[in-house]
Amino acid sequence: MSVAALITAGGRGTRIKELGVEKPMAPLHGRPMVDHVLEQMMLVDEISSVYVSISDNVPKTRDHLRKLGVNVLETSGTEYCHDLIQAAEGISEDHIFICPADLPLLRAELVSDVVREYLKRKEQSLTVGIPLEKALEFGVDVTFYENVDGRSLIPCGVSVVDRKRMLTREYLPGSYFVADTPDVAVNVNTPDDLKKAEKVLHQRLTCP
Asked: Distance from CA of residue 73 to its chain's centroid?
């Protein structure tokens, strides 16, 4: 079964605008944040194609990705779920690994683990969740969490879905994949988040 990766990068990114750049283009360790996510997706054996959804909210990101030769999917940029459906209509693979461009610490190894678990479970969706205690440890601003099998989990925006079922716009039943690493905990929405990601990335690159 074929699995595509969809990196969502078409939002307004209002909380990080004080940096003077579009969120996907925010500089992280000398490169645009979206490049870090792209690089890791390209390393995942289970991923057959990588797409990035964009909109008129991110014209500089669009230009940057086109220069790189990345598969871009145009969306309205008005509402997240609507944009996901628009992007899915431009993808031919059976399943889609979805992640936002503001998770620059996401590593290929975790992506591979999530995709393999999804294919193994044979459900319509698999959502990656962070344990509440780990999120607090990482300094995550907790706004929502769910109780799953006695554990409090925060959905981090990463999931794998059945593309055809997603296009029906109906509820997708599924389960959670629990991840307790900074890979999915450090979601960059503010300049402070960017500093946090920079620190973790620096540690990774200097202390492998």
From this structure: 15
pLDDT in tens, 152-179: 998 999 999 999 999 999 989 999 999 9
Helices 108-121 and 33-42, interaxial angle, to 10°?
50
Structure tokens, 40:
């890791």
* Short-list 61, 96, 60, 55, CA closest to 76: 55
Inter-CA distances, 95 with 50, 122, 176, 189, Å:
12, 11, 17, 27
Q: Which residues contact 193 (CB under 8 A, 6 or more apart)?
A: 16, 102, 186, 187
**Maximum Cα interatomic distance, the chain, rounded to a whole number of Å:** 47
Range of the domain at 34: 3-206
Query: Over 12-52, what HEC string results?
Result: CCHHHHHHCCCHHHCEECCEEHHHHHHHHHHCCCCCCEEEE
pTM: 0.93
Task: Give me the number of domains the chain comprises.
Answer: 1
CATH number at residue 167: 3.90.550.10
